[in-house]
Structure formats: C-alpha cells, structure tokens
Design goal:
Helix content: 55-70%
Number of helices: 5
Number of strands: 0
Strand content: under 5%
Distance between the termini: 26 Å
Largest sheet: none
Shape: globular
Structural class: mainly alpha
Length: about 110
C-alpha cells in the first residue's frame, strides 16, 4: 500500500525495476498459499494487493503475472464472499475498484 502511495506521488519511480518487483510479487502471490494463510485476514490480503497494483497504474495487459494475479483474485474474492469470510465493506469496494482500474476482462462470479 505504501509503495502505491509513493509511486502515485512520483510517477518517475515507475520503471523497469518496479515492473519487475510487481511481477515477482504477483507471481509469488499466485504460486503459493501465502494470500490465504490467515482465514481472518485473507480477504484483506487480496484487497490490499489488488488495490496496490492497480493504484500504481498496472493493468492486466501489462504483464502475464499481473493478469494471473487478477485471475486468481477473481476466483478467490467471490468464494470468500460466498463463504461469508470476514471482511469489511472497504475491502470489497477496494477489490472491485482494483478489478475495474486494472482493466480485468474476466468475470467475478
């Protein structure tokens, strides 16, 4: 979240190294169970990560790993809501905003 604030203030920070960092974070989140380790914090984890990446100006068209992250989020977020997993309205709102801002073209069912 703080990185997205910094990049938002100084757009010069968005370059190859930041793209590589975002790709690495996205790949790690998709390739492991780290996002869902804590049942009480899973929704917030997804919300913050998706929001941060979208806030920095990355879209699903920017890289395969960002696209895969949003695809994984599109599967997880509705399932967590269906299971009535703990979340606050702000996290739901931030997630939906992130999907729209990152130009996610899939379906959230």
């Amino acid at each position: 979240w703080s990185l997205s604030k910094l990049v938002g203030v100084n757009s010069k920070l968005r370059g190859r190294h930041l793209s590589e960092l975002v790709d690495a974070i996205a790949a790690r989140a998709v390739g492991s169970s780290i996002m869902n380790q804590s049942a009480n914090a899973a929704f917030k984890n997804w919300s913050i990560l998706l929001y941060c990446i979208a806030k920095m100006g990355f879209s699903c068209q920017d890289s395969k790993s960002v696209q895969q992250l949003f695809e994984a989020g599109a599967k997880e977020v509705p399932q967590m809501l269906h299971r009535k997993q703990r979340c606050v309205p702000q996290d739901v709102s931030n997630s939906i905003w992130a999907f729209a801002t990152a130009e996610y073209g899939g379906c959230l069912q």
